[in-house]
Amino acid sequence: MLLGKQANSVHGVAVKVKVCGLREVEHAEAAVDNGADAIGLMFYAPSPRHISNEEGAAISKAVKGKASRVGVFVNPEPDYLQQVLADVELDILQFHGDEDDDFCEQWGLPWIKAVRVAGSTDVEAELARWPNASAFLLDAYTPDAYGGTGEAFDWRLFPKEQNKPLILAGGLNPGNVAQAVATVSPWAVDVSSGVESARGIKDEALIKGFLNEVKNVR
Ligand SMILES: O=C(O)c1ccccc1N[C@@H]1O[C@H](COP(=O)(O)O)[C@@H](O)[C@H]1O
Fold first, then answer.
1. 211 FRET partner, CA 20 to 30 A, in 73, 168, 169, 188?
2. Which residues form the N-(5'phosphoribosyl) anthranilate isomerase (PRAI) domain (predicted)?
């Protein structure tokens, strides 16, 4: 599991893994069976990984009790988010847009704030904008997309010390995740396009490969 109701562990002994943008029950099951701590369900319509509430409910049910189910949103309308919560059992919310602390805090679930990092970003100052976040996910900034681009940021900008769990994301894949973990020592890693055979299409072998690579450095 990724986070409890209270997130209070920082830099635990094992690197946790979230596999994001799952659209098929069998891919979610493959991720969980191979050691994923969390799966991400994309509720952002422009994403190639977007799923309906019905699809999300089926995946959520399949992995219940085995992994944390994270709903990923980008600047959602409150009514839409409310409807997702009514239809899909989720454990954690991930906000990947311009949502402020008050917006993220109102849903009664632990939440992760994604912060998009460019060369000029003052990461510490950015993280201070969401004091109630349970954890932060650091992803690459790209001007034309909110995430899921397969782009990495400069890992030297990843904070060495933080009082909250930090998740490394952006451009991770089976070929670079071991190096990323060794370089940055994140609390968790998050992958989406790096385990796809085509845009939005997850690949079971790549999912397994990614999880094996992380296991080797756990
Ligand atoms: O996956 C998407 O399409 C997406 C769209 C909008 C916001 C976030 C999105 N995905 C998240 O982006 C990061 C990094 O993805 P990648 O591994 O570089 O493809 C990851 O946290 C996804 O959850």
1. 73
2. 17-212
